[in-house]
Amino acid sequence: MMDDDLVPARMVNEYVYCPRLFYLEWVEARFADNDDTRIGRQVHRWVDTESGAAPLPGEGELRAARSVTLSSERLGVIAKLDIVEGDGDAVVPVDYKKGTPQPDGTPWPSDEVQVCLQALVLREHGYRCERAELYYAETRQRVAIELTPERISHTHDLVADARRVAAGARAPLPLVDSPKCVRCSLVGLCLPDETNALLARREQSPLRLVPRSPDQRPVYVTEPGAFVGVRGGRLEITKTSGRDKTKEKLDSFRLLDVAQLAVFGRVQVSTPGPAGVLRQVDPSAVAQHGRLAVRIRGRPTTEIRGVASPTDRRTRTGRRRPRRTHDPPARSSTAARCCAATPAVTWPARSPR
Predict the structure, then answer these.
(1) Considering 74, 146, 264, 343, which has the largest number of Cβ atoms within 10 A of its Cβ?
(2) Is the pLDDT assigned to residue 155 strictly greater than 80?
(3) Weakest mean pLDDT among 100-104, 130-134, 226-230, 288-292
């Protein structure tokens, strides 16, 4: 970073949160997305669209303007203001945040510094600004911040400290056992636990990484004679048995919880069944323009009945004629006997968090 580069107010926010995060994002230009950053963009989608006039003092009245970018060579910062509201002969910058304030209702230190810089940049351009505000979207509340001399001096010191860190040849060391690292988008690049363990900066061993339990899981149907269908947004597995054709319900799952459907042996799948599942799972199994509804892969001894394609010919009654695939009876019976020893419906257990 050059000495005359303007530091974004957002990066000063990152410096207060974590100096190493600031260095990785600002100096090394490294960035990664996570749920928090994506939600933040969603919260900012309204204020990121420029609207409203922001005339300089003496050139007109400023009522409300969105997405205003101002800079100050003297302060050495540049800031993008989400909203600037007129307040009589003064203005108030409002910065949007996705989360909540601290439990006692005060703003987080990093957020406070960022909005204070926005107010100071407004002053540099001739506006009268006595306070700034933070809007926390999760609790839908505004938190006012008065521009006291102590707060202004502290903000200037933080900008100077951030510039000194940025001028260094290496990134600062990571935080030690900090709760901030858990939800940081760059934790996979920063590697705080691993780095601190190698440098003997912590006594505990590195935390064990546990893969996230997926929201969706596969369903395996192996019961001979089972029937898979879709009803009311759920995947229903039933079986008809006995001379009286009694229908027994084997299991039922919400479609949004099903990652894939795997059938083995003599299992029937209704026409809406594969299509209903594929709307929720990997679209690589769906061909466009109605040609292939589902691709089912099974053992060589698998017999699949009643799976119809949208392109099948219709019968005289207007119903679709199912396309049947039959294996030799000996092989099919062998598959049925093999599958009979397995559970009818398998729903893999979630891994412990």
Answers:
(1) 264
(2) yes
(3) 288-292
* Domain 217-346 coded CATH 3.40.50.1450: no
Q: What's the mean per-residue pLDDT of the chain?
A: 78
Task: State both tokens at 339.
Answer: 């599958």
Tokens of 58: 């003496």
> Which CATH number applies to 7-198?
3.90.320.10
For the segment 136-145, the average pLDDT, to the nearest whole number, is: 94
Per-domain boundaries in the chain: 7-198, 217-346
- In angstroms, the CA 180 to CA 14 distance is 12
pTM: 0.59
Task: Answer whether residue 339 shows pLDDT above 80.
Answer: no
